[in-house]
Amino acid sequence: MSHLQTAARAGLRGKSLTMATLNPQVKAVEYAVRGPIVMKAGDLEREMQQGVKQPFAEVIRANIGDAHAMGQQPITFLRQVVALCCFPELMHSPAFPEDAKQRARRVLQDCGGHSVGSYSASQGVDCIRRDVADYITRRDRGVPSDWSDVYLTTGASDGIMSILKLLVSGQGPSRTGVMIPIPQYPLYSAAISELEAVQVNYYLDEANCWALDTEELQRAHRAAKQHCQPRVLCIINPGNPTGQVQSKKCIEEVLHFAHEENLFVMADEVYQDNVYSADCRFHSFKKVLFEMGPEYFNSVELVSFHSTSKGYTGECGFRGGYMEVLNMDPQVKAQLVKLLSVRLCPPVSGQAAMDVIVNPPREHEPSYAQFTKEKNTVLDSLAHKARLTEQILNSVPGIKCNPVQGAMYAFPQIYIPPAASLSLAPDMFYCLKLLEETGICVVPGSGFGQRQGTYHFRMTILPSPDKLQILLQKLKEFHLHFLEEYSQAEPQMSSSNPEQPSHKSKQPD
Length: 509
Hints:
Its EC number is 2.6.1.2. Belongs to the class-I pyridoxal-phosphate-dependent aminotransferase family. Alanine aminotransferase subfamily. This is alanine transaminase. By secondary structure, this protein is α/β, with parallel strands linked by helices. Helix content is 41%, strand content 11%. The protein is built from 17 helices and 14 strands. The strands form four sheets. The chain has a seven-stranded mixed sheet, with helices on both faces. A three-stranded antiparallel sheet has the order 10-14-13. A two-stranded parallel ribbon has the order 1-12. α8 links the parallel β3 and β4. The longest helix has 26 residues. It is globular and about 70 Å long.
């Protein structure tokens, strides 16, 4: 009697949900930021807690932009307002400043039952949406923002996913193509896989500080039209994982291209406060679009995203965010509200955190001095660490790192000798060895996309300056040892300049 027959006679049955019956789109999803290298890092941490000796004292997680996990302290005013919203009895405490209490009262006034424990409207708490619109108007120096175009979201990711759900349709050659930058943040490729859309890659120019070239956009668009209908253009500015900040001229060219090709533009601007290079400045896609004139501003469909998770606050756990939707068909807008209603509402405490970011203390208010000091301390430290990371990485033979102009990451190109890996992708092998020998956890460049024959990794600049210095020094020593060990099988490095990564290494067959 077979095992199945025995199980059937015993009244047992197999699982309804197995890998064979699992939604194939879920199996297709990959998310490198929390992928196998990160899982291995967790295993090593657990082993160390159980007394297993490793060649390092701790695992340094440089794989994800989680500022507080890396030791960044919360902004006092933000936590005060959220605390007051969550526990209004604190309104009677003299330890909380009056401007924090005023903001908390205003938020609670718009909450059902005057409690953040109630559901909000699906679009978010009205007064917070109004504050977001006022913030956008100030940020963009008077370009008007209508609060009815603002939707509060569960982080930026929730908004991005919701908009993509609206955009994906068609079958075969008419299936929606979504243009994304390479390298990209893996949320986009994961969402495209989940929705069975068509991923259309356009490559950023690494030789020109990861610039966005409209000729490359045109090439990718032409090629994609052979097998899908490109309808969406995703932009990340400042860039993740590449850290570049786009110029106003570049943004104008991109928006002109989107206008000509009738593309829906998704502008991921969650790092808009994270600009470090003195010769760079953040320009919002909306402001540039407005300055291009009514022909563009009244026609190009644009959604921009922001989040509590980045900037100077780094409040990832609150899952707060917003999106501003421009020029969307009114009937489609109604469908968006319906779609958002299915998930009821974003976390109201996260909405309150978002409100502090868009409505910070003003000069005449009691919390202004401390808030400004804390904000500048965070941003100045990030700027210092951006320069330090670029400087040390570029001092290592076989590593080349573009300037970290903004965001929170470096994406250096690394030379990997062809003999370094037989069974794994070379950059995966490199990052695994780095983790096992030094405890440093970074993400292979293949998880973000990279040009064929080049290898990279992404690391955050979030560790404290002292810990970042240690990380970079250990990384330098590891890389030199790695080159020495795996180049022995090669007569010489394939790059004519050993100071630069090779562009000739090939991916394994």
